[in-house]
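User: Hello, beginner here. Can you help me understand these amino acid letters and fold codes? It all follows right here:
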Amino acid sequence: MRSRSIPPAILAVGAVAALAACSPKPAPPPAPSVLVRTQAAVQGTVPDVVTVYGAAAPATGALATLSLRQPAQVDAILVAPGAVVTAGQRLLSYTLNPASVAAYRQATAALALAQAQVAHANQLFAQQLATRDQVAQAEASLRTAQANLAALSQQGAGVASGAVATPVDGVVVSIPVAVGDQTAAGAPLVTVARRGGLVITAGFEPAAAARLRVGQPATLQSLAAGLPAVQGSVARVSGALNPRTRLIDADIAAPGGSLILGDAYRAMVTVGQVSGWLAPHVGVLNDGQRDYVFQVSGGHARRVDVSLIRSDGNIDVVQGPLDPHLPLVADGAYQLEAGALVRTASAR
């Protein structure tokens, strides 16, 4: 019986299968990794800053309200609210009420008459034609006339017209009268805030206000575009809640003339220092429940839950169980999850 030969095609297929079985399996593709930048985990301090908003207004005791002691008519107003004025500058001109002028003239005439009566009484006394009591009565009338005229002079009645001048360098806050108005004695005519008497009054949350102290530094930035920031300090801290805002009011002063009356400002008050781990702001994440950062251990990302204490520009201060020997992810943290493989480059 003849043996059957195996077709060459079948032999070729078998050879290929045998070679495939003997060749090594291809290596699996490398696990994906994330390129991040890292920095050393270090501790430090940053200023503890409280930011509030307020407007520039005169401080308590910084206002000078100018008035006349006699009724008068306003003849001219020489400045406008907001004007910067210097001590001695005329602000308003006036004419006294005719009755005030008449009263002064009557007092002048009464003094002249009293002086003449004293002289006459002394002459009669020398001739033994008047008694000492008559001379004393004439002298008493003279003293009364002198006192009346002095009082009117002190009240400004001796000048029928004149001007109201500011006693201090400052800014005109208000002018509650108009040309032609008849004003009563003592009525306010012009209010001036002395130079350096403007402050930013702002409301602080009670917890923040508890850390305020007079003299603490503050940076004041006008909300108007293009104006430079000025340095100031806390001048006053109220001891009671503002009943309208339910906040604690505090005054922040700045060097004379550096604030603009009525302008709105952002005040950044340094109330102390905050210590903790210093982390880049982009490296501190939040999952909706906790703040966290990543450190790199053995080429893998390690999540560390932290508490964010303070942000200072691009730097955050956090507290948590960071390992000082492991690098902290400074850039690229948003791409990571716990255990992810990372490639690292040091942050500049």
About this structure: The first helix runs from residue 8 to 22. The chain has four domains: 34-45+275-346, 51-59+196-273, 68-96+159-194, 98-154. The first strand starts at residue 34 and ends at 39. The chain has a mean pLDDT of 86.
